[in-house]
From TrEMBL:
TPR repeats lie at residues 101-134. Coiled coil: none annotated. Residues 90-200 form the Cytochrome c-type biogenesis protein H TPR domain. The gene is nrfG. GO terms for cellular component: plasma membrane. The keyword Disulfide bond does not apply. PANTHER family: CYTOCHROME C-TYPE BIOGENESIS PROTEIN CCMH, CYTOCHROME C-TYPE BIOGENESIS PROTEIN CYCH. This is Formate-dependent nitrite reductase complex subunit NrfG. Keywords: Membrane, Repeat, TPR repeat, Transmembrane, Transmembrane helix. The chain crosses the membrane at residues 33-54. InterPro entries: C-type_cytochrome_biogenesis, Ig_CycH, TPR-like_helical_dom_sf, TPR_CcmH_CycH, TPR_rpt. Pfam families: Ig_CycH (PF23892), TPR_CcmH_CycH (PF23914). Residues 243-349 form the Cytochrome c-type biogenesis protein H Ig-like domain. It comes from the Bacteria.
C-alpha cells in the first residue's frame, strides 16, 4: 500500500512539473508584468496545494484559449495516459476503503491536475467529511468548488473558506482565496487586509510575501483611482458592460457533439491578447445556449469588457474537457463587434481544430 501511494505521489509531481508549470509561465507572460506576481504566487503554492489557486487566477477557459505549448516528447510523452491509469487505480482502491481521508485528498488533487473540477470537488468533499478540522484541506476544497463553478467563489466556497480560517487564521491558501473573493466584489479594503495577513504568515516563503505586498500596492492604487474617479464623475457611475451571446452548432456538427462535451464561451479584446475578458463554461448538452458575459467575470480589473470598444466572442466545444485546445475540438467566432451596443451576439460553432 505504501508503495502505491509513493507511485501516485511521484506521478502527480511529474505531471505538475511537465504539464502545469509551462502553462503557468505562459499565463504569466500573457497577462504582463502587473499580474506576473499573481501567477508567481500561484506557482509558489503548487507543491503544497496541487494548484489550489488555479481557478482564482484563471478559469480553465483562460488557459484553453492560449496557444498550446509544444508537445512534450521523450520520456514524458505518455504521462497523461499513465496519470489517468494511476488515478483510476486509486479511485478503485477508495471504493474498497472509503474511510481513507488521505486517499480521497490525493484523488482530489489528481483530478485537479487532470482538469476534472467536478470530480475534484466531490473527492475533496469526501476527504473533508472524514477530516473536517484540516484547514489546508478545507482551503483546497473551497478552490475545487470554485473550479467546478466556472471559477467563481460562490456561497458554498466562501463558507468553506470561512471554516478554514476559523480553524487556522493564518492558513495561507484560505487567506489568498478570501483576498481574491474580496477583490472580485471590489471590496478593496477587505482584500488588502487578507493580503496583509497572508504576507505576515510565519515561515512564509519570501517571494510569496513580496508578491502579496505587490497585490496590496496595486489594490491600494485601484482603490485610490476609484475614489478619484467617483469625485470627477459627480456620482455618475459608468455603465458596466454586459453582453448576451447565443451559441449554436452548425447542422454539420450537431451529430458529432456529445452531451458530455464541454462548452467554453469567452470574450477577447481587439488588442491581440489571448487572455479572455470574460468566460463562461457550460455543458454541450445546453446547446443551443444563451449566456451573458459581463465585467464581473474579468480576470483582472484593468481588462474588462467595458475597457474595450471592440471585442470578439469565441466558443469552443471540447470532447476531452481539457483546458488547452486540441485537434478535433469545434470552434466558432463572432468576429469583431462593438462592446457598447452589440445587442445579442450570435456565434455559430462550425469549424474543426486541426
Amino acid at each position: 500500500m505504501i508503495a502505491f501511494w509513493l507511485i501516485i505521489a511521484a506521478m502527480l509531481l511529474g505531471a505538475l512539473a511537465c504539464v502545469v508549470t509551462p502553462l503557468l509561465l505562459t499565463f504569466a507572460h500573457e497577462r504582463g508584468q502587473a499580474h506576473a506576481a499573481l501567477a508567481g504566487l500561484m506557482i509558489a503554492l503548487i507543491p503544497a496545494s496541487a494548484l489550489t489557486l488555479y481557478m482564482r487566477i484563471g478559469d480553465p477557459a483562460a488557459l484553453a484559449i492560449q496557444t498550446a505549448p509544444p508537445a512534450v516528447s521523450g520520456e514524458h510523452a505518455d504521462a497523461p495516459a499513465s496519470m489517468e491509469a494511476a488515478v483510476s487505480r486509486l479511485a478503485a482502491r477508495l471504493r474498497d476503503s472509503p474511510d481513507d481521508a488521505p486517499g480521497w485528498a490525493m484523488l482530489a488533487r489528481s483530478y485537479v491536475v487532470l482538469d476534472r473540477p467536478g470530480d475534484a470537488a466531490e473527492a475533496y468533499r469526501r476527504a473533508v467529511a472524514l477530516n473536517p478540522r484540516d484547514a489546508e484541506l478545507l482551503a483546497d476544497y473551497a478552490d475545487a468548488l470554485a473550479s467546478a463553478n466556472g471559477g467563481g467563489l460562490n456561497d458554498a466556497a466562501l463558507k468553506v473558506i470561512g471554516a478554514a480560517l476559523a480553524l487556522d487564521a493564518q492558513e495561507p491558501k484560505a487567506l489568498a482565496l478570501a483576498a481574491s473573493a474580496a477583490f472580485d466584489r471590489r471590496d478593496y479594503a477587505s482584500a488588502i487586509q487578507f493580503w496583509e495577513r497572508l504576507s505576515k504568515v510565519p515561515d512564509l516563503a519570501p517571494q510569496i510575501a513580496e508578491q502579496a505586498q505587490k497585490n496590496i500596492d496595486e489594490t491600494r492604487a485601484l482603490a485610490a483611482k476609484g475614489s478619484a474617479a467617483s469625485i470627477v464623475a459627480s456620482n455618475v457611475a459608468p455603465k458596466a458592460a454586459s453582453i448576451e451571446v447565443r451559441v449554436h452548432l452548425s447542422a454539420a456538427l450537431e451529430k458529432r457533439v456529445r452531451p458530455t462535451d464541454t462548452l467554453f464561451v469567452y470574450a477577447l479584446a481587439d488588442d491581440g491578447s489571448r487572455m479572455p475578458l470574460a468566460v463562461q463554461r457550460l455543458s454541450a448538452s445546453q446547446l443551443p445556449a444563451t449566456v451573458r458575459l459581463d465585467d464581473s467575470m474579468a480576470m483582472t480589473p484593468n481588462r474588462r469588457l467595458s475597457d474595450f470598444s471592440h471585442i470578439s466572442i469565441d466558443a469552443r466545444v471540447s470532447a476531452s474537457g481539457q483546458a488547452r485546445p486540441a485537434a478535433g475540438d469545434f470552434t466558432g467566432s463572432s468576429g469583431l463587434v462593438s462592446s457598447k451596443d452589440a445587442g445579442v451576439i450570435d456565434v455559430t460553432i462550425s469549424d474543426v481544430v486541426r
